[in-house]
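Re-running the complex after MR caught last week's input typo. The corrected sequence lines follow. Everything else is unchanged.
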Amino acid sequence: MRITLRVSRFDPAKDTAARWEEFDVDVAPTDRVLDALNEAKWRRDGSLTYRRSCAHGICGSDALRINGRNRLACKVLVKDVVADGRITVEPLKGFRVIKDLVVDMEPFLAKFKSLKPFLINDEPVSTEERRQSPAARARYDDTTKCILVRRLHHRLPFLLGRRGLPGPRRHRQRAPVCFRRPRPRGGRAFGFDGRAGRRLEMPDGFQLRRGLPPGHRHHGRHRRRQARAALPEKIMEPTKKTIAIVVEDDEAISDFFVQTLEAEGFEVHVARNGLEGLKMIQTDQPAAVLLDLALPEMDGLTVLRKLGDAPETSTIPVVVVSAYADADDTRTVLDHSRNVRKVFTKPVRTEDLLKQVRAIVAGR
Amino acid sequence: VGVSDKGREFNTELLEALELENLLDLAECTVASALARQESRGAHAREDFPKRDDARFLSHTFAAKKDRGVALTYKPVVVTKFQPQERKY
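Corrected-run output:
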């Protein structure tokens, strides 16, 4: 199909202000907007300038304003944005334009550098490696996984500064992922250094959400509001989460389940053997259980029998994830258990597993 | 190869032309190394030399671009924990 690509152009050597230029390009509906830009650059005007690094929706280098919304050009398909045969492409707002669609990222990076996005121990520096448990690590996984996608910069006001934002009200409504910094088990201090070199101590079980790190100030209306509310505004009650239990002796597999379920919003408890798992299920009354069959201390089939024997546990939904689920005698037990909602044979696809867990939680 | 963008600032077209030059040098080195390695080893698979030849080629290739052609030298592989063995599928 032929579309008109309306691009904001700016040549620092010639232009005093940005101007629009239109390119008629031939693209397939399933091409990405980046392909349309490439088509314009490679066939029409080699001086058309934009960033593209990975070109696969990961690095975020081609974050652009496409039809008025911040999108990744390498992710958005032409057919999903084209309107009346046209697509409008502009640089991200809030940054100085260097050339065409390329913006100056330095202010963004300078703000990022002013934070210390890592853990700081109170103990003196050890000569040996400091070990960390997967559980402690899992508590701040989200934070470390933030790859600073610039498309989302308007959700990260502290990285951007106020200039050019669509308005502070909007980004107060949703807490950006990067702001959730759960306090890790084990270390006492965790938080931002900021310009002041201050450390933020968090009371047990609380999470830092929203607001700016120390040393960064709101402006105007929000500064006044912040002054009224002071620090407590930033500390919110921990939310009551739905509990899921993973009974799995293989650490790598359980880690994977924990991450998957936590990403779904569950509070996940892990048991390494059948006996521990059974006790945990009895005490915690989880919304869902992922159960392995080959377990130390007490095998999974016994756990299922014991769950079924007691009225308070006989309705707790269990998803069996095991390599041995297909053996005949195993099948018989699984078919007779009232707890078992689904049996997966390892390896299991994350999507299938999540679908099942979601269905269980929704149906309860 | 032509470069239509004559600008001095953020000239991605010029950048890509310069990268192309380097890629061609690298391609020449790769081809010369592959031609000289008369065996098959992993991803380097040749129909004319389908077998692996440890006697001649259990070695790292070093390729240096010269004014004319590519100069090849070799360095022996230091085998530590894993003994090289044939891949079977």
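None of the earlier attempt is carried over here. Residues 1 and 87 of chain B are 42 Å apart (CA to CA). Chain B touches chain A through eleven residues (CB under 8 Å).
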